[in-house]
Design brief:
The chain has a 3-stranded mixed β-sheet. The longest helix has 35 residues. The protein is built from 6 helices and 3 strands. It has a domain of 120 residues: Zincin-like (2-Layer Sandwich). It is globular, with a radius of gyration of 19 Å. By secondary structure, the chain is mostly helical. Helix 1 packs parallel to helix 2.
């Protein structure tokens, strides 16, 4: 079933096309770690891609506008100032070297597979928090100020994310 857009989503999608010269393709991905995420089109790509999980269909209109906010933030900068956070193996190695003692302690209680999973979660989560969280706050403020019709969905989305974050603090997760 196709995504059912509500106002102001069609106008936002048109603005993306006007500013970037490319439309958006929506790709449902069940094994996706986030609610939704955008891959900005490179020169050789015909469109930007928004990946999303069907389980978040109730929030999809808010999520789409949020992801478009990332495009607007990037494309409103002069081309020579458009910077995208980047990490490579050397940066990852340096970061993990800083928590080497903790990793060694965890080898005493976790299997190698579980340890690798935890380390990836820590590293990717931290990188995402540092690089994505500040723009996300500004995008949510922009949505709140500019699109009052999306406020109920925005509130539900934030409540859902909050509940999941609190679940992550339980004794079982610890």
């Amino acid at each position: 079933m196709a995504i059912q857009f509500i106002d102001p989503v069609p106008e936002v999608l048109e603005e993306v096309k006007r500013i970037t010269g490319k439309g958006i393709e929506f790709i449902e991905k069940e094994e996706f770690p986030a609610y939704a995420s955008i891959q900005m089109a490179r020169k050789h790509m015909p469109s930007h891609l928004i990946y999303y999980k069907k389980e978040h269909d109730d929030l999809i209109n808010h999520l789409i506008v949020h992801e478009c906010g990332h495009l607007f933030r990037t494309f409103k900068c002069p081309e020579n100032q458009r910077l995208i956070p980047h990490s490579d193996n050397q940066i990852r190695y340096n970061a993990l070297a800083g928590i080497e003692k903790e990793i060694i302690e965890l080898t005493k209680i976790l299997s190698e597979d579980k340890l690798a999973h935890i380390i990836n979660l820590w590293y990717n989560g931290l990188v995402r928090q540092v690089t994505n969280f500040p723009p996300d706050i500004m995008i949510e403020k922009w949505i709140f100020d500019k699109f009052p019709k999306l406020r109920p969905l925005q509130l539900e989305s934030i409540k859902k994310q909050h509940a999941e974050a609190v679940d992550g603090l339980t004794e079982a997760v610890r």
